Amino acid sequence: MxxxxxxxxAVGYEGREILHDVSLSVDRKEVVAILGANGSGKSxxxxxxxxxxxxxxxxxxxxxxxxxRFRQWARVGYVPQRLGAGSGVPATVGEVVASGRLARxxxxxxxxxxxRDAVRDALADVGLLxxxxxPVATLSGGQQQRTLIARALAxxxxxxxxxxxxxxxxxxxxxxxxxxLRRFGDNGGTILLVAHELGPLRPLIDRAxxxxxxxxxxxxxxxxPAGHHAEPDxxxxxxxxxxxxxGICEWAPTDRMAAN
Length: 260
Ligand SMILES: Nc1ncnc2c1ncn2[C@@H]1O[C@H](COP(=O)(O)OP(=O)(O)OP(=O)(O)O)[C@@H](O)[C@H]1O
Known about the structure:
Elements: E1 2-13, E2 16-27, E3 31-35, H1 42-49, E4 57-62, E5 65-66, E6 76-79, H2 93-98, H3 102-105, H4 113-125, H5 141-154, E7 159-163, H6 171-186, E8 190-194, E9 207-212, E10 215-220
Parallel strand pairs: 3-8, 3-9, 6-7, 7-8
Antiparallel strand pairs: 1-2, 1-4, 4-5, 9-10
Bound molecules: adenosine-5'-triphosphate (ATP).
Adenosine-5'-triphosphate (ATP) binds at residues 13-14, 18, 36, 38-44, 196.
């Protein structure tokens, strides 16, 4: 069963086309990583899949339903790139994770035992049960990211969509993250994630899709990072937007490139 099916997608902002003729399919239980240089259109692709950015041309099906008719958004968990709550919202870790239940229970019903259990399970899964009552703002960046994945897991989704889940995250949190995703996949979940570097997520990835200047340039086994990204002590500094966009060769040597 195809969980996400993107066909000949074009997307733009303010008249500037960013994605051109992108087709991508993710089957049930697959773990697919979208790779590519800064600004290549990775986030735009998954945000369009989630209905957050309008489609200019092409089609997207979710769970074999055209996106415009899709209503089962509780089946989709989204882990965005950054935790906005770090910016002064005094929510506790438990509250942020509990907000992941809203799509399931509706805002007019009080949380029941199933909601509380789901929140507890999700917190335990990411190793933050003991931090449930702490304000999110007091957590490290990596722990905040784990809070976000717990929020998505609490909704018991069938599909998890993650945007650079490990960017700027400490090694311990990256490992915890990878373990949580593995358990989610082992339980039948489907994962679509954007990554700049795979790190500990690499063994989980069934298929990598490299986006280059708004087109799919490679699809297949996760390519080995080349150049400076391959150095063990390479510490990726995320916003290198001021530099020329890094080439496709960072991810996929030309002899491994496949036509889309
Ligand atoms: N809301 C927006 N309005 C206008 N332009 C945008 C918007 N969001 C993204 N863009 C532009 O679209 C292009 C692709 O951005 P996108 O965030 O999809 O790339 P990305 O591959 O995810 O990059 P990164 O690795 O830096 O997150 C960039 O040129 C970006 O400036």
